[in-house]
Design a protein that fits this description.
The protein is α+β, with helices and mostly antiparallel strands. It contains eight helices and seven strands. It has helices at residues 80-84, 87-101, 110-125, 130-144, 188-199, 202-207, 210-227, 233-243, and strands at 3-16, 20-27, 32-37, 55-62, 68-78, 165-167, 172-174. The chain has a five-stranded mixed β-barrel. Strands 6-7 form a two-stranded antiparallel sheet. Helix 2 runs parallel beside helix 4 (130-144), helix 3 runs antiparallel to helix 4 and helix 5 crosses helix 7 (210-227). The protein binds zinc ion. Zinc ion (ZN) binds at residues 154, 156-157, 159, 174-175, 177-178. Residues 154, 156-157, 159, 174-175, 177-178 line the site of zinc ion.
């Protein structure tokens, strides 16, 4: 029987028939995997809660003709419970797995897997503000896929910074000559926060004002939506809440 093992994060699940579920996984070595978990919705399931969203597991899969079949699952990190009890952690985790689900096969690398596991673990432990963990995750996930926003030099002409405008459609911070008429000017503190989020400078991130954090979050959401063509539904949800 052609079977294989891998470490995976559960991105999403949906019902199949009476008791089964199709699970979408981001794996460490096999990219994205869609597999059937049989009997997982029965209370007596041997999988327990190990194949719920945000869970990290070591799984053994059987290669099926269209979908693979999960044979075994051992928990490597049960972050779901600690995430689900806090609304802000849940919405951030949801946006993270949704962004990961948008990765194409070539982008679904081991680095993306490790970045997502690290982000979910930080959310579950409440290491920083949930939105900051999401923002840092989105910037780095896009950078791994070759879409890092330009933050120092002008994203369009390369003129050295610092610059005052961030334009998602142009790829990041742009100089005065390249900024379209009416482009909003970004507070220098928010511009520095973008760099800290990208670099993982958590002391600077945690010390940022709520105004700078909100400005940076809005730009990162706009930038992520621009690049992940179909848009991230849960991000739109969070943005509208921030605006209220
Ligand atoms: Zn320029």
């Amino acid at each position: 029987m052609p079977t294989y093992r891998d470490e995976v994060v559960v991105l999403r699940t949906h019902k199949l028939g009476e008791a089964d579920r199709i699970v979408t996984l981001l794996s460490r070595r096999h990219g994205k995997i869609r597999a059937v978990a049989k009997g997982v919705r029965r209370t007596t399931s041997r999988f327990g809660a190990r194949l719920e969203p945000f869970m990290v597991a070591d799984v053994q899969l059987y290669e099926g003709r269209s979908l693979d079949i999960v044979q075994q699952a051992e928990s490597l990190g049960s972050y779901g419970a600690d995430i689900a009890v806090h609304y802000d952690r849940y919405t951030s985790a949801h946006a993270m797995v949704e962004a990961a689900d948008r990765l194409n096969e070539a982008e679904a690398t081991a680095q993306q897997y490790l970045l997502l596991v690290g982000g979910l673990r930080a959310l579950a432990r409440g290491e920083h503000a949930s939105r900051s963990i999401l923002d840092s995750y989105l910037l780095r996930a896009m950078a791994l896929s070759g879409w890092a926003p330009g933050l120092a030099e002008c994203a369009r002409c390369g003129a050295p910074g610092p610059h005052e405008s961030f334009v998602a459609q142009l790829g990041g911070m742009v100089c005065r000559d390249c900024a379209p008429t009416g482009a909003a000017r970004l507070d220098p503190a928010a511009a520095r926060l973008l760099e800290a989020l990208m670099a993982g400078e958590w002391d600077a991130v945690d010390a940022a004002s709520s105004g700078a954090s909100a400005a940076a979050s809005g730009l990162i959401a706009a930038y992520a939506q621009w690049h992940l063509e179909r848009g991230i539904r849960s991000l739109a949800h969070i943005s509208s809440e921030t605006a209220r």
